[in-house]
Amino acid sequence: MATQLREAEVPAVDPLDVSRPELYRDDVWQAPFRELRATSPVHRVEHSDFGPYWSVSTYKPIIQVESLPDLYSSQVGGITLADFIENSTSDVRMPMFIAMDRPKHTGQRRTVAPAFTPSEMVRLSGNIRTRTAEILDSLEWNKEFDWVDKVSIELTTQMLAILFDFPWEDRRKLTFWSDWAGDIELVKTEELRLERLKHMYECGAYFQNLWNQKLGKPPTPDLISMMMHSDAMAEMDQMEFLGNLILLIVGGNDTTRNSMSAAAYGLDLFPDQRAKLEGDPSLIPNAVQEIIRWQTPLAHMRRTATADTELEGQQIKAGDKLALWYISANRDESVFEDADSIIVDRPNARRHLAFGHGIHRCVGARLAELQIATLLEEMGKRRMRVNVVGAPERVAACFVHGYRKLPVEISKY
Fold it and tell me: What's the farthest any 2 CA atoms get from each other in the chain?
């Protein structure tokens, strides 16, 4: 009898709860989002592993929410569906500017923005091209290897090491910390929360040492120096320093890395589009936008309502949690025709929401675009085609939308 009662207390799985990790692990998230867009663009989920939340799944209301950052806060509840647990030994607040509201957000974002200006992209472009060429030239032709490890992770981790002036020989620590920081599933057990916290403290201690080495020295064009020499970030406490580091590591690693993997996987999935791109390299800048749209490397951002309001006819209460599903908005049929396909010359590919919208739009978007474009250009110079030879292993989570492994071979075309 007691067992039956316990079973009765467990709510049935909501087929429209799109936070479930298996949807992303098995790459079957498209159907529930299609139903949400068609029937309930702002949909209340009462029971999920992250508690009750509103799913915002179409393009227009996401733009509306992102355009009202004072009404829909990034700071109150953070930027993921996972809630902070008060008075928990495994949960420590690590403030970061993406999870801040104005005016503090403005000052801290302005501090790191100079690292991503058009002039900085010009300055970095030669280095990016050289490193991309070296990695592609190190690959063996017609022999299976993991594209994620050999290309996507290595290119993005090298870039992060340059941005942070991080010791080259230790650069894979950045990948390790990013994976631990960005995995939303880790919050579901106390044991994993504690292990993640341990790794985040290791990250913080390492970077504190790098900070200390730069104290009293002239400014240099790296992110640590930019923070140190700014009014907005020079006096950050330890947790805020760590929070912003994690933001920049995850933002710089997961987004670009998973888009680079999507370039290999997605173009293999749509060979006619790959052939079109191979035949016309002038399509590369647009194809980069289309690949980012199609992959959407961060599936959602969370906002919390600061007052009672209405969205698409739904009554949102103060304190309610909203998941802005960029991954679904980028498949919104009313905006993108044949949205599930990669179309390298799609006229409006640049309208994607993968980088967000409004004051929180990804500060490093230009750098991500430059790295992916350079990869495609250098592959084109070598007439290198990536052939997927096995099923990818995907991240089982509703925040970072990406690939753990992608078995491929490269051949000439």
Answer: 72
For residue 315, what are the β-bridge partners? 310
Gap between the Cα atoms of 12 and 19, Å rounded: 15
CA angle 328, 333, 336 (to 5 degrees): 90
Q: Are strands 393-394 and 314-316 parallel, antiparallel or unpaired?
A: unpaired
Give residues with Cβ within 8 angstroms of 207, minimum separation 6: 164, 224, 241, 242, 245
Task: Tell the residue number behind the tokens 């993406």, with chain if given.
Answer: 98
Q: Reduce the DSSP state of residue 298 to 3 states and report it.
A: strand
Residues contacting residue 410 through CB under 8 Å, at least 6 positions apart: 139, 140, 141, 142, 384, 385, 386, 387
Q: For a pLDDT cut of 90, what percent of the chain falls above it?
A: 69
- pLDDT tens digits for range 67-94: 999 999 998 888 889 876 554 555 556 6
Say which residue the tokens 């110079």 belong to: 381
CA 63 to chain centre: 18
The DSSP code sequence of 57-87 is -SHHHHHHHHT-TTTEESTTT-SSSSPP-TT
H or E element that contains 322: strand 321-325
Q: Is 231 exposed, middle or buried (0-12, 13-18, 19+ CB in 10 A)?
A: exposed
Helix (H) or strand (E) holding 251: helix 238-269
**Is 273 in a helix, a strand, or coil?**
helix
Task: Count CB atoms within 10 A of the CB of residue 13.
Answer: 11
Helix (H, G, I), strand (E, B) or coil at 17: coil
pTM for the whole structure: 0.91
**Calpha distance 124→209 (Å, rounded):** 25
Helix extents (H) in 171-189: 172-182
Contact 244, 97 (CB under 8 A): yes
* Strand, coil or helix: 53: strand
Question: What is the phi/psi pair of residue 190, to 5°?
Answer: -60, -40
Structure token digits, residue 227: 């923070």
What's the rounded Cα separation, in Å, for the pair 79 and 101? 11
Strand bridging mode 321-325 / 53-56? parallel
Is 164 within 8 Å of 378 (Cβ atoms)? no
